[in-house]
Design a protein that fits this description.
The complex is a heterodimer of chains A (414) and B (477). Chain A has 414 residues and is of the alpha/beta class. Chain A folds into 2 domains: 297 residues, Aldolase class I (TIM Barrel), CATH 3.20.20; 98 residues, no CATH class. Chain A has 16 helices and 10 strands. Chain A has a 6-stranded parallel β-sheet with strand order 3-4-5-6-7-8. In chain A, strands 1-2 form a two-stranded antiparallel ribbon. Chain B is α/β, with parallel strands linked by helices and 477 residues long. Chain B has 4 domains: 127 residues, no CATH class; 64 residues, no CATH class; 59 residues, no CATH class; 173 residues, Uracil-DNA Glycosylase, subunit E, CATH 3.40.470.10. Helix content of chain B is 41%, strand content 13%. Chain B contains 16 helices and 14 strands. In chain B, the strands form 4 sheets. A 5-stranded mixed β-sheet of chain B has the order 3-4-5-6-7, with no helix packed on it. In chain B, strands 9-8-12-14-13 form a 5-stranded mixed β-sheet, with helices on both faces. In chain B, strands 1-2 form a two-stranded parallel ribbon. The termini of chain B are far apart. The relative contact order of chain B is 0.06. Classes of the chains: A alpha/beta (414), B alpha/beta (477). At the A-B interface, α1, β1, β2, β3 and α2 of A face α4, β3, α5, α6 and α7 of B. Chain A: Keywords: Iron, Iron-sulfur, Metal-binding, S-adenosyl-L-methionine. Chain A: Pfam families: Radical_SAM. Chain A: This is DNA modification/repair radical SAM protein. Chain A: Its cofactor is [4Fe-4S] cluster.
Chain lengths: 414, 477
């Protein structure tokens, strides 16, 4: 047991947690602390209390309970054979730290994960105990995200859902083969089994709340998962298919992609090169296409190259549009909403505005300019009352006209 | 009362009791519409703002019969209630113009391409963003109870852009119900004791505590959760603009984190890639390279680098400390107050600025923000030593016969050690490349003095410059 200061241990255990991409604190039930003794509220929208110089938002206190681990997953910095510094917190210490930070308005709540110590059940128990102290002893009504351990007892995972707003289980790798090779102690069926039980629990709790007002809530912000990108040979098409399967099968709120980062003391089984950061970004964009723009996974896959990877220089929607040019140009004054979603450069908000505005006037190019972010990007794909892209959609060099200028992205991203 | 004919149209002025009093605006706007007073005849005056209150005609006490129904959609009231909190003095006029037009055209708001509607949306968006940033960036500091039985209190200082403080009281009340807290701002303050909310007058930063023991732990967390392998400072500053930094405890370590990450990257590239390339060989190449230099925390701030100026084969090189606010804006060295003073002394000593090469020991402007002002900070020894690489590259290209260092920072940049100006001035120091170094005070030092001390130092400065001119003459001869 380490006896070093809270500050040293916080540094180690926050550092170990930064490879988890999720920091969302939104989409949970509305709660507040009025009339109670404690503090905390959730009002639908999450709040980013700070941003780190890596551009990521800091919304939750994201730490591990411990980074000791009996597993040996090759992509993980905390694996048994890694030679990293170890530390552990007690559940009470994490709960107190969360409350101290929350009182000063640094955070929205806690995202607790852990390496596996002693056994999966022991670890899960400790994490649930931390959430219990927060909810019952501190009367904390802010956000709690617990990472659950698929190997732990179903009963313990269920208790986690009763205290937490969101629970998550990482599928870790997009293919079963990759999982077997890189995470020898994990089992894809076990992970899916746990996800399935959680999604059933969420559905059951939602159903009983419809009938009984005081039925206990169960993970009101749903469940999410994370995949490591670039550690195995899975292509973007594989990943998009897998993600889309997870969304439909388990009703996940989010699938997070984490570009495999070169971790100190890397294992020899891993590729030496890290994937370009922009690949992760393209995957998130395709994730958005599926969730908000009505694309099917197969359609996103159509935008990939012969190896099944999305182009890195342009976004997947533009790639799709360039491949299916016969769909364009679309008349913004008449095209249905679902088709407007497919125009590169038109987001959901812009489409909403166009649909609302065209009830009142016939849109001209200048109107579209006012309703969108970048007219240059949209123009080759639309018609307005005063504009038709006469030759643009047939031009062979359209891609080079629309792709952003090559930047030296990778020089310093390595 | 009927509106008078256009030629002698009366103007009506409405003075708002508070800048965020939407309910008051709503009452008056209803009455004005019922009296059929068009938007161009009404001026809305905020408290403290100048207005033609006395020149204007009083509002009619009641609408004429039959009382007209005033129509406004729920969506409009929602947007307007928010936009009314904006600090734009024209906001109430805009809202009234929209309400007026809406009486004829009840679906006006749906026309997102209309310029008034767009402006409303922009005001609303700015206020929502400001409120959101308030929810995010208020930082409480704990005040321990002074005597037994007293509660601990949490106090925050925040500077909003708009009149949003009262409107956001509910958020903090719901969130921190079980805690005694105060939020102090220049636009008013809020105090909650766990049961009731009290509004207070505007406060000052000094009224809030200056620190909290937890902040070290928070900074530790902030530094540890940051992934140095992926630096995206622009993404950070777009969501957490610099104007908020001075009230965020974690922001103080950002420059160090950025510099550390870049040093790490540079190290990775240097160790993996080809050998580190040599110094740039022309003044233009140096000028371009310093722009991208992130080797120290100053370079990682937003400002631009200031390159040296003067003939490429000047016999005299003058080295200052670092660009100041004016220099950084102009992109030229020695153009601010200290530079102008230097010009005057050089002219009286008979030295030509045009024939000298002027540069600085440190190429970026090191400063802290105080409100909107950028306050000069002296560069540290480590930063000067880092930037020495560039100064040496410049000396290598220009090959001056004589280098004049203004102040201790410049002297350190050339000698690599700190010297005392008082002891080193007035005599040349031989440098390795055959040139000689003269050291004198920095002109900004003269600017800070007054009275007898100023005259004494100015005389010493003149003496040093004259010595330099004589020495240049000897070298040339």
């Amino acid at each position: 047991m380490s006896s070093s200061s809270i500050m040293d241990r916080l540094a180690i255990l926050a550092d170990a947690a930064k490879y988890d991409a999720s920091c969302a604190s939104s989409g949970t039930a509305r709660r507040n602390s009025l009339g109670g003794k404690g503090i905390g509220s959730t009002e639908g929208m999450g709040i980013c209390h700070a941003y780190a110089p890596d551009g990521r938002c800091i919304s939750l206190l994201k730490i591990l309970l411990t980074n000791h681990c009996i597993f040996d997953c090759h992509y993980c910095v905390n694996r048994k054979s890694s030679n990293t510094r170890r530390a552990r917190f007690t559940p009470q210490e994490v709960a107190d730290l969360t409350i101290s930070f929350y009182r000063r308005n640094y955070i929205e709540g806690l995202f607790l994960s852990s390496g596996i110590v002693k056994s999966s059940n022991h670890t899960m128990e400790q994490m649930v105990e931390c959430a219990r102290i927060l909810r019952e002893e501190h009367e904390f009504r802010g956000y709690i995200h617990l990472k659950t351990i698929p190997e732990a007892d179903a009963e313990l995972v269920h208790r986690a859902g009763l205290f937490a707003d969101r629970v998550s289980i990482n599928v870790e790798l997009p293919t079963d083969r990759g999982l077997a090779r890189l995470a020898p102690d994990k089992d894809a069926r076990q992970i899916e089994g746990a996800m399935n039980r959680t999604s059933t629990d969420i559905a059951a709790a939602r159903d009983s709340r419809r009938r009984f007002r005081h039925a206990p809530r169960f993970a009101p912000a749903g469940q999410s998962t994370q995949m490591i990108v670039g550690a195995d040979r899975a292509s973007d098409a594989d990943i998009v298919h897998r993600a889309s399967g997870l969304y439909t099968q388990f009703g996940l709120r989010r699938v997070y992609y984490s570009a495999f980062s070169p971790i100190p003391d890397a294992s020899a089984v891993l590729p030496l090169k890290r994937p370009p950061l922009v690949r992760e970004h393209r995957l998130y964009q395709s994730d958005w296409l599926i969730r908000f723009y009505g694309f099917r996974a197969a359609e996103v896959a159509e935008a990939t190259d012969d190896k099944g990877n999305l182009p890195l220089d342009i976004d997947p929607k533009l790639a799709w549009a360039l491949k299916f040019r016969e769909t364009f140009p679309l008349d913004v004054n008449r095209a249905p909403r679902e088709l407007l979603y497919r125009v590169p450069g038109l987001g959901v908000t812009a489409v909403d505005r166009i649909v609302a505005a065209r009830r009142h006037r016939t849109l001209r190019l200048e109107d579209v300019a006012r309703l969108t972010v970048s007219l240059a990007k949209v123009r080759p794909f639309i018609c307005t009352a005063d504009w038709r892209p006469t030759r643009l959609t047939d031009r062979a060099d359209l891609r080079s006209l629309l792709a952003p200028r090559a930047e030296q992205l990778e020089l310093f991203a390595a | 009362m009927m509106p008078t004919p256009a030629a002698a149209r009366a103007r009506y002025a409405v003075a708002l009791p508070r800048p965020d009093d939407f309910a008051f605006w709503r009452d008056r706007a209803r009455l004005l519409i019922q009296c059929a007073i068009p938007p161009e005849d009404v001026s809305w005056i905020e408290p403290g703002a100048p207005g033609d209150l006395f020149a204007a005609q009083a509002l009619p006490p009641a609408p004429p019969a039959p009382v007209r129904e005033v129509r406004a959609s729920r969506r409009f009231l929602q947007l307007a209630g928010n936009a009314a909190l904006h600090s734009d003095p024209a906001r109430f006029a805009l809202l009234y113009r929209l309400l007026w037009r809406m009486q004829e055209h009840d679906r006006l708001l749906e026309d997102k391409a209309d310029s008034d509607v767009r402006q409303l949306a922009e005001l609303d968006k700015a206020v929502r963003r400001d409120s959101h940033k308030m929810h995010a960036f208020v930082r409480f500091r704990r005040i321990a109870p002074r005597e037994a039985g007293e509660r601990e209190r949490y106090v925050a200082w925040f500077e909003p852009d708009h009149h949003i403080v009262r409107a956001n009281a509910g958020f903090f009340q719901r969130r921190f119900a079980g805690m005694a807290w105060s939020i102090l701002t220049p636009r008013g303050s809020l105090h909650w004791d766990g049961e009731t909310l009290v509004e207070g007058p505007p406060a000052q930063r000094g009224d809030a505590p200056s620190g909290d023991a937890m902040e070290d732990l928070w900074r530790t967390y902030y530094a540890s959760i940051f992934n140095p392998a992926r630096l995206k400072t622009r993404a950070m500053t777009s969501e957490m603009p610099r104007k908020y930094w001075k009230n965020l405890p974690e922001a103080s370590i950002i420059p160090d984190l950025v510099a550390g990450a870049q040093a790490r990257e540079a190290q990775m590239i240097a160790s993996g890639g080809p050998a580190f390339e040599g110094r740039p060989r022309s003044l233009d190449a140096i000028g371009a390279a310093i722009e991208g230099c992130r080797a120290c925390p100053i370079g990682c701030q937003d400002g631009r680098a200031v390159r040296g100026e003067g003939p490429g084969a000047a016999r005299l090189m003058i080295v200052g400390e670092q660009p100041g606010d004016c220099e950084e804006r102009a992109g030229r060295p020695f153009v601010g107050p200290a530079g102008q003073l230097l010009d005057r002394h050089m002219a009286s000593a008979g030295l030509s600025r045009e024939r000298a090469y002027l540069t600085n020991a440190v190429k970026h402007f090191k400063h802290t923000l105080r409100g909107k002002r950028r306050i000069h900070q002296t560069p540290g020894a480590k930063e000067i030593d880092t930037c020495r690489w560039w100064l040496e590259a410049e000396r290598d290209v220009v090959k001056p016969r004589l280098v004049l260092a203004l102040g201790a920072s410049a002297a350190r940049a050339i000698l690599g050690r700190t010297v005392s100006i008082v002891r080193a001035r007035g005599a040349p120091i031989d440098l390795d490349d055959g040139s000689e170094l003269w050291i004198t005070a920095h002109p900004s030092y003269l600017l800070r003095l007054d009275g007898a001390a100023a005259r004494e130092q100015a005389a010493l400065f003149d003496r040093d410059l004259s010595a330099v001119r004589r020495r240049l003459g000897e070298i040339a001869a």
